[in-house]
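Agenda item 2: fructose -6-phosphate complex prediction
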Amino acid sequence: MKIIVTKDYEELSASAAKVMLEVVKNNPYAVLGLATGTTPLGLYAYMIADHEKYGTSYAHVRTANLDEYKGLAKTHPQSYAYFMRKNLFDGLDIDPENTNIENGMAEDEAKECARYDELLEQLPRDIQLLGLGSNGHIAFNEPGTPFGSGTHVVTLAESTVKDNARLFDDISEVPRKAFTMGIRQIMQAKKILILASGANKAEAVCKMAKGEVTESVPASVLQLHPDCTLIVDRAAAANL
Ligand code: F6R
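Presented output:
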């Protein structure tokens, strides 16, 4: 795992943008695996600024997101589909038809997971962007998830519900279940870019990068990926 430590969140976002933009500029038909959450917001702002200033085109780019809350429609302001439109896609020339995410409203869970698995097979990702949960999760693969897992429905860990409550009016509104891409499919990406910022991620960063490779720290599997870059700010790198 290649580790880049930056001074702060701003530098982390600029450094992440360099990695992501290299992929898009080298291949106009790139397939991007994308993440939601607070961490990639700075990177997404850089991608939009670059598109506006230099005209980098996403007209042929396709995307697949990691996860979606169960029970939230894509028009719901807290859904990840909405998040992606608002924070990235609306600022680019990407065709909405080329963006993919699980359907949080799907009633048949098994069918929806199979649909997404099939889609991911057809869409080998050139790069997979990840954030890191404070409990070591990647996507919504919570501690204990088998490394061989495919798309599945997960009951969110209590710590994840608490972490994500800041984005809702009240903790009772945070969905308890989500669809998530599996660890197997994350590991299939050609390149992985994982970002972590802030002191509350320091312990998870250390376990992921320097600890034992174990299913109780899902992100530790990334030590086995041949091309994984971790970008962390100083606060998140404190225990390395
Ligand atoms: C988001 C996702 C999650 C987040 C993680 C960190 O699509 O899959 O694994 O990346 O929970 O979230 P933030 O960036 O909000 O700290």
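Discussion summary: The helical segments are 9-26, 41-54, 80-87, 109-122, 158-164, 183-187, 202-210.
Owner for follow-up: CH.
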